[in-house]
Amino acid sequence: MTDPHDSFSRRAMLTAALVGGGAAAAALAGAPAAQAAGKQSEGGQPGGKKQFTLTVLGTTDLHNNVFNWDYFKNTAYADTAGNKIGIAQAATLIHAMRAERGAANTLTIDAGDTIQGTPLAYYFAKISPISATVKHPMALAMNTIGYDAVGLGNHEFNYGIPLLRTWEKQLNFPLLGANVHDAVTGGRAFTPYVLKRVKTDNGWLTVGLVGFVTPGCALWDRDNVQGKLDFNGIVEEAKTVIPQVKAAGADIVIVTSHSGATPGSSYGDALPFPENASTQLAEEVPGIDAILVGHAHLEIPERFVTNKATGKQVLLTEPLKWGMRVSVMDLELAREKGQWTVTSAHSLLLDAKTVDADPAVVRAVQAGHEATVRYVNEVIGTSTAPLSTATACWEDSAAIDAINYVQASTIKAELANGPAAGLPVLSIAAAFSRAVDVKAGPLTIRDVAGLYIFDNTLLSIKVTGAQVKDYLEWSAQYFKPVTGTTARSADVTNAVTAVAPNGTPDYNYDVVYGLDAPLNYEIDLARPAGDRIANLSYGGQALRPEQEFALAINNYRQSGGGNFPAVKTAPVLSNSQQEIRQRIIDYVVDHGTLDVAVFSQANWRLTVNGAPLTVTA
């Protein structure tokens, strides 16, 4: 890292770190000292208003990425864009910006999804759970950096409320969630906001930091929160809490909003509140000056939304995910007659690949990282064939079959001695990543963790043949219309729909698998969405609408994620609340092998007017 006492070197490093460079980089490189270092001055405004620049630094969707490390590949993280990940990388940018702007003039916040997402997170939730004596790596890292506040994300609830509360106690700063309420008392369950006092040469500035989380938590973690926590709509809650923050003395208000900037909901009308409401929040609730956006994993350097009531421009920014970027929000303020107002606001993103990891953060979490590496590299069995998801989104894959087979076999055993024992078992699974590449031979825990990266749990529900057909039709919306029999994958997958305006993600394309007999089908992309499933059969016979099945399904999907039809209201047959990843690990340990000859089926394919479709990467 450059010499922290060398102002020119610091500025050169930050200029290099700017995403996109160009005018923003030039502006920072040549910024006057009063602006770049957050100094105060008089003049430059009519009437001699007194000036101050507040800098707010933001991260989001860290997903427990501490180091630039890929636990699934057991090597440094790498992608085609050359990104680096981890809060240790972001910390270096944060410290450099504090040195550049002045630490006393800088606040640091995060917009949620912090404690879930990597084997490191799983290790400290399930293998060596955090406690009064075992500290969470993200608490250690964030405390070392010195955050001022962090907002709740929906994934904070994945490991249950007790673990979340333990993590909250380990933080040296507030965990914000204004729209989360106690289901019994109705009171707010988390700190709604915090006031930060910033000393300037022209008196004190009071900054209100407010946090909101997408209300989809009520669906996605229903088993963890039902009857315990309620989630109000973000805009609905903000109309109450923002005036409270102002009344408490906030001169300006900065929001962490774990809710995307592009309107829409992956759960359709399952809740009365939208999933992604940050733009609506800026438009409809007066009194907000800037919003740090999270949840969508998008890169928004700077965006302005006009408040409908005041005409004021509200600044929005989102720093991608995993610590790849740091948002820098500069708010220019003027004080006149004892009142502070924001005269202008701008933001930009800094790129974590331009710096090295912060040594203090590395020291704080090194032991936990090393323990996790040892854990995930334990050999638990063998695989008889390679398991890859590189083409799983457009052709049958043994990797997805492996997940479905273990899920279906587990459910078959769970139902064996009950009233649903006679039901044939189906299973659904999706490719969460196209990067899974498990070699034939020894299988480690990290291989299985890479095959199933989420902490979803396994349930079974009762469905009919007609509902299976509807489910497949909904899933097939993932594909774009095709007219020829050869196409590139980019021209086939990730279709834009009403509930996926940015394109349907891979994890919302489900394959349906039959355990007791094959469920075979074709997806004809020459036909319109909703009428694409052809030659649907079970056990060699046309699927009958009245046939009944037990369907193995994950808790995210069953609770409404992706808004698939019928599953939210279907009778639940079993719910062990055990992670699917652990179920796969247990299967390998018990059987010693994943034998592709046992579970692989070629049960579905893409067609165009009945002819096979050839898809190239």
Q: Structural class of the helices, strands and pairings?
A: alpha/beta
Amino- and carboxy-terminal Cα gap: 39 Å
CATH homologous superfamily of the largest domain? Metallo-dependent phosphatases
List the total number of helices: 18
CATH fold call of the largest domain: Purple Acid Phosphatase, chain A, domain 2
Unreliable residue stretches: 1-8, 22-47
What is the number of strand segments? 34
Keywords: Hydrolase, Nucleotide-binding, Signal
Protein name: 5'-nucleotidase C-terminal domain-containing protein
Signal peptide: 1-36
Family: Belongs to the 5'-nucleotidase family.
How would you explain this protein's 3D organization?
With 617 residues, the chain is of the alpha/beta class. It has two domains: 53-373, Metallo-dependent phosphatases (Purple Acid Phosphatase, chain A, domain 2); 378-616, 5'-nucleotidase,  domain 2. The chain has 18 helices and 34 strands. The strands form nine sheets. Strands 1, 2, 5, 6, 7, 16 and 17 form a seven-stranded mixed sheet that branches. A hairpin with a 7-residue loop joins strand 1 and strand 2 (50-59). Helix 6 (137-145) packs antiparallel against helix 12 (359-376). It is globular and about 80 Å long. The protein starts with 6 loop residues before the first helix and ends with a strand. The relative contact order is 0.12.
Helix and strand layout, with pairings?
Blueprint lengths: L6 H11 L4 H8 L3 H4 L4 E2 L7 E10 L9 E2 L4 E2 L10 H15 L4 E5 L8 H9 L9 H9 L3 E3 L9 H10 L4 E2 L3 E3 L10 E8 L2 E11 L3 H4 L1 H4 L3 E3 L2 H14 L4 E7 L19 H7 L5 E5 L4 E8 L6 E7 L5 E12 L2 E13 L7 H18 L2 E5 L3 E2 L9 H18 L9 E6 L6 E2 L2 E4 H7 L5 E8 H11 L10 E3 L21 E5 L4 E6 L8 E6 L2 E2 L5 E7 H4 L13 E8 H12 L1 E2 L1 H4 L4 E5 L2 E2 L1 E3 L1
Parallel strand pairs: 2-5, 5-6, 6-7, 10-12, 12-13, 13-15, 18-31, 20-29, 24-34, 26-32
Antiparallel strand pairs: 1-2, 2-16, 3-4, 8-11, 9-10, 14-15, 16-17, 18-22, 19-21, 20-25, 23-29, 23-30, 26-27, 27-28, 32-33
